[in-house]
Amino acid sequence: MGNLFAKEKLKSLSLITLPGGCDGYVWTGESLHLRESPQKKEIRLEEKKTDANMYVASKEGDTVLIYGQVDMHLQPILSDFYIPMPHESLTFYKEMGERMEGSITTELAKYFNKHTSSNEVPFYPVPVTTLSGVFKYYNFKEFKNTQKRRQLVKKIRIEEEVPEADPAIEKSVKKQIGVRYGEFKEVLMLAFKKRRVWPIKGLEKYFKEHQKDFQAWKWSSVKNILACIAYTYSTGPWKKLWVQYGYNPTKDQEAYKYQVYMWKNVSKAFVIMDNPEVYEKIKETPEFTQRVFSARTGFLTDKALAYMHKKFSEMAVPEPEKPAEQPDLFHSMDFETLDN
After folding, report:
1. Bridge partners of 11?
2. CA dist 128 to 18, 147, 160, Å?
3. Does residue 334 or residue 231 have the better pLDDT?
4. pLDDT tens per residue, range 18-28
5. Are 232 and 242 in contact (CB under 8 A)?
């Protein structure tokens, strides 16, 4: 390659790419319009993902001079339809507009009556075409949600590596909660000092027991802080449970006590250690646990699963006391998300 030079101080630039090239457009410095269009509708722009190594440069012979780095890439927002104004409509409404400067009862009325006595009122298209931002009203699946959303909860499969806390997520949650974020997080951290893995229902109960520490805040807001403390599994023995960052239950044989046993259906699911009778039986029976982790049974053996199946099949398990709006162990697992 020839000689490469960079300006002493690179400028931060915005790049606008236009269909058909820039000759067909007019840029006023504040807005963009089609050059030959009789309707001077502003063309709205949206930001696209920018390559971190995109630069603007010029080449003369063997010399390349870099002027700046692109930090914003803009493209026109596509419309789902466009209705052009017919020529006869353009003429009619142009004449009407000019006559509006005079007396409405004379010039404007005369022209309107003369034209419409033998012709229909010319069609006038909508002043603004539908933009991609409102495609959702047409129920187009590919444009169902055009807003960028941040998923708070880190969800992994049982075979995946344990994730680390994401500073970007914590920043978003901290912004949402405000100055109380730090003290609320400390209270929730105390729960994970008692045990490393929690069902969401257990954490909500903990919240109610410490309601005074959270003042007038609601669980629907405070629970977003959990995404800064713990992650969840989407598969495996700890499915849908909250696991503290830094703790890998697949490496800890004692994590069998946190495993979920689902008897018949999700409404009767429970965590082993939350059922004292079952927990004690498994602890005192060596053949009910194993040293090698299994993605299917965790650190429990098939004998342990058979014991629980037999136990609950032969007895009537009383329904736990619970509000009608909280039907199972995983209720309220769906979290709100924050806008970027």
Report:
1. 68
2. 19, 21, 49
3. 231
4. 877 778 788 77
5. yes
Residue pair 266/329 in contact (Cβ under 8 Å)? The answer is yes
More confident site: 151 or 257: 257
> Which pLDDT does position 56 carry in this prediction?
78
d(CA 297, CA 290): 10
Q: How do residues 222-245 score in pLDDT, each as one tens digit?
A: 999 999 999 999 999 999 999 999
> What amino acid occupies position 299?
F
- Greatest alpha-carbon pair distance for the chain in Å reads 103
Tell me the domain boundaries of the chain: 3-76, 87-116, 150-339
pLDDT for res 263: 72
181 CB neighbour count, 10 Å cutoff: 18
DSSP-derived 3-state class of residue 329? coil
How far apart (Å, rounded) are the C-alpha atoms in residues 180 and 187? Answer: 11
